[in-house]
Amino acid sequence: MLGQRIITAVILLAALLPALFAANPLPFQALTVLMIGAAGWEWARLNGVVAKPVAIGCGLLLAAACWASFGLVSQAQVLAPCWWLALVAWVVGGTVALRLGPAGWPRLPSLARLVLGLVLLWLAWLAMARGRAIGVNFLLSVMCIVWVADIAAYFGGRAFGRRKLAPTISPGKSWEGVY
Asked: Which of 7, 15, 27, 174 stands the most exposed, by the fewest C-beta atoms within 10 Å?
């Protein structure tokens, strides 16, 4: 499992770093739109969209929405309400999700789950694109913080993990990894 993670990380970095350091932001935007489109396709599949053309359509729709909103990236004042909305949605949605537990997720309307996920992925793309517009050093520092936290959680959970975090969702995750 660790070997597969390392190989995947090296391949993704080999694609990401040249696009990130390009003088023009277009290669980075295009690569991340492609990745977010793939995430939209996967999100559709995870939420029960079994028709392959519909799942692909969700990914293409998300990628098109990201590409169409490229002009917003340089307008910090316009994006500020989006960030506040995302924060409120995350706190409220996270609270509801924790309260419902894993068994409660399927009880939510599938269309609402699908749209919520696609909107959050769109906001994630906007945040990455805005981070790149602020500067490569800024975006890399944010990514490094996330990578270090993820690696520490992985190894901390492997070394000290005893109490399962959410065994029905991800059986390998532990509370010790969270800490």
From this structure: 7
Q: How many CB atoms lie within 10 A of CB 1?
A: 8
What is the Cα–Cα distance from 93 to 95, expressed in whole angstroms? 5
Q: What is the pTM of this model?
A: 0.82
Number of helices (H) and strands (E), helices first, in the chain?
Answer: 7, 2
**pLDDT single digits (tens) 11-25:** 988 998 999 999 998
**Cα(132)–Cα(147) distance, integer angstroms:** 17
Rounded (5°) CA angle 37-91-88: 80
Strand locations in the chain, DSSP E? Answer: 164-166, 170-174
The CA distance from 28 to 156, in Å, is 32
Residue whose entry in the numeric block shows the structure tokens 């169409």:
68
Q: Which token pair is 147? A: 């990578």
What would the two tokens of residue 173 be?
Answer: 């995750």
Show Cβ contacts of residue 53 under 8 Å, excluding neighbours closer than 6 positions.
none
